[in-house]
Amino acid sequence: MVNSTALLHYAARAGDHNDRAMAASPHLAAALASHLQTQPTVIGKASPSGPLNWDAELALALPDLKSLAASLDVGFNNKQHPVIVCSRCAVGLATLPVVARHVPDVLVVWFDAHGDLNTPATSGSGHIGGMALAGALGLWESGLGVGIKSVVLAGSRDIDAAEKPFIDGERVRLVSPGPGFVQELKAVVTGRKVYVHIDCDVLSPGQVPTNNKVPGGLSLVQLAEAAAAIAQVAEVVGVEVGELETGETEEETKVNAKVLVDTLGPMLK
Questions:
Q1: Which of these, 111, 58, 128, lies nearest to 239 by C-alpha position?
Q2: Which residues have CB under 8 Å from 118's CB, separation 6+?
Q3: 245, 269, 250: which is closest to 260 by C-alpha?
Q4: What are the backbone dihedrals phi and psi of residue 8, each rounded to the nearest 5 degrees, phi first?
């Protein structure tokens, strides 16, 4: 039985292309704190971005990622429901193995425009965020653990050729955006224990500020419908959300953060 919520704010750099997501994450954490009526545990602190290859980025982030993993582990041991705020998807390298250890039959629902299934051997960009899910699935060794057995890519549409062989419907299944998206996703998650990852670029460009702008994504209404459907038919064991960037003003960023929290509300304890 879940007794409370563990709100974790990973404030540090994790393969950040720029500083805008690190700058937006405190506002998202504040919006979640207000919604959940709890205070966040802050892990790490923001530092200037300067995109490096995956190995250098991982080395820089590793101490804070290990701290996040340890805090998440404590939360699960205390039967708390984790809600995690982060800047970038690379944080999943630390969170997903902990989730898998505590919930071995978990289904990860990965809302993202991309597959994030590249490895150091297949990545054309060397960007660690594009390897996050692959690391947790054991497709490469990050040093942060493995253990995830099944994933649904929800709303993904920009998938590299090297990632496609891993999408086989067994370990990794794709639910593409478009007509019937919510109904198909609902059918896949029904009766499962799910851990939900939200990369804001799963949304169509212009819904909220993001670094990547991939056409053909979800609307906020569709994301809200998906969140409600998941909460209705599955057991949500945790949520992580990242990749929200700052707006033109601080007030705009706060508004966007609240809109996002309201959209995901049904999945939040």
A1: 111
A2: 124, 130, 131, 134, 160, 162, 163
A3: 245
A4: -115, 130
CB atoms within 10 A of CB 3: 9
**Cα(100)–Cα(107) distance, integer angstroms:** 9
Would you say 43 and 68 are in contact if contact means Cβ atoms under 8 Å apart? Answer: yes
Dihedral of the alpha carbons of 15, 43, 79, 70, in degrees to the nearest 10 = 70
Q: Could you identify the residue written with the tokens 């198909």?
A: 184
| 115, two tokens | 């597959």
Q: How far is CA 40 from the centre of its chain?
A: 17
Q: What is the largest CA-CA distance in the chain?
A: 44
- For residue 23, CA distances in Å to 31, 161, 207, 250 come to 14, 33, 18, 10
Paired strand residues for 236 = 194
Contact 199, 243 (CB under 8 A): yes
User: Looking at the 3D structure of the chain, how many domains does it have?
Assistant: 1
Which is it for the CA torsion 70, 73, 75, 78, positive or negative?
Answer: negative
What residues in the chain have per-residue pLDDT under 50? 1-2
What is the per-residue pLDDT for 2? 47
Q: Calculate ∠ Cα 50-51-55, nearest 5°.
A: 120
- The three-point CA angle 121-124-128 to 5° equals 75
* Per-residue pLDDT reduced to its tens digit, 181-226: 999 999 999 999 999 999 999 999 999 999 999 999 999 999 999 9
Kindly state the tokens that stand for 257: 């953060």
Structure tokens at 234: 């599955």
Q: What is the CATH number of the domain that holds 58?
A: 3.40.800.10
Query: Could you list the residue range(s) of the whole structural domain that residue 200 is in?
Result: 4-267
